[in-house]
């Protein structure tokens, strides 16, 4: 995580490292309230500034699914400052309410005539593999 902050030219602080550790250790995207629950101590303003910095620098991306709190998932290496490039589907589990970033090798092609698609976000709701297994 330290190398990621250095690579993105972000000052390393214990707080930023703690937030990154929470994001990295989660198997799904997480909400700010989840991060708050897992921080040892925090200042809400510092947390929101940290989240904004991580989004702006291409470390995390927001996932806004209708009717849900915004969640944040770690970005891939292809994300840069203010340019997020993801080839995955966001799945919200109807049972555990977790939000997952699911990589896919086959992404749909959509023809919108003379319009140019620069990014495409696909959201799905269903049952995650953990809930299906139980």
Please give a structural write-up.
It is a single chain. With 134 residues, the protein is of the alpha+beta class. It has one domain: Winged helix-like DNA-binding domain superfamily/Winged helix DNA-binding domain (Arc Repressor Mutant, subunit A), CATH 1.10.10.10. It is 32% helix and 19% strand. It is built from 5 helices and 6 strands. The protein has helices spanning 2-7, 14-25, 32-38, 44-56, 129-133; strands at 30-31, 60-63, 71-74, 88-93, 99-103, 122-126. The protein has a 3-stranded antiparallel beta sheet with strand order 1-3-2. It has a 3-stranded mixed beta sheet with strand order 5-4-6, with no helix packed on it. The protein starts with a helix and ends with a helix. The model has no long low-confidence stretch (mean pLDDT 88).
The biggest sheet, with number of strands, parallel, antiparallel or mixed sense and barrel status, is: 3 strands, antiparallel
User: CATH homologous superfamily name?
Assistant: Winged helix-like DNA-binding domain superfamily/Winged helix DNA-binding domain
Helix share bin: 25-40%
Overall form: globular
CATH topology: Arc Repressor Mutant, subunit A
Specify the number of helices: 5
What attributes does this structure have?
Arc Repressor Mutant, subunit A; 134 residues; 32% helix; single chain; alpha+beta; 3-stranded antiparallel β-sheet; 3-stranded mixed β-sheet
Q: Topology, pairings included?
A:
Blueprint: H1 2-7, H2 14-25, E1 30-31, H3 32-38, H4 44-56, E2 60-63, E3 71-74, E4 88-93, E5 99-103, E6 122-126, H5 129-133
Parallel strand pairs: 4-6
Antiparallel strand pairs: 1-3, 2-3, 4-5
């Amino acid at each position: 995580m330290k190398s990621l902050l250095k690579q993105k030219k972000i000052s390393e602080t214990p707080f930023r490292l703690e937030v990154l550790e929470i994001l990295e250790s989660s198997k799904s995207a997480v909400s700010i309230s989840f991060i708050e629950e897992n921080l040892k101590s925090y200042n809400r303003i510092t947390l929101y500034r940290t989240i904004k910095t991580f989004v702006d620098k291409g470390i995390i991306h927001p996932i806004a699914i209708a009717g849900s709190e915004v969640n944040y998932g770690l970005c891939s290496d292809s994300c840069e400052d203010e340019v997020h490039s993801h080839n995955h589907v966001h799945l919200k589990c109807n049972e555990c309410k977790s939000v997952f970033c699911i990589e896919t090798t086959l992404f749909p092609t959509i023809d919108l005539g003379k319009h140019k698609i620069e990014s495409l976000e696909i959201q799905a709701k269903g049952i995650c593999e953990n809930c299906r297994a139980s």
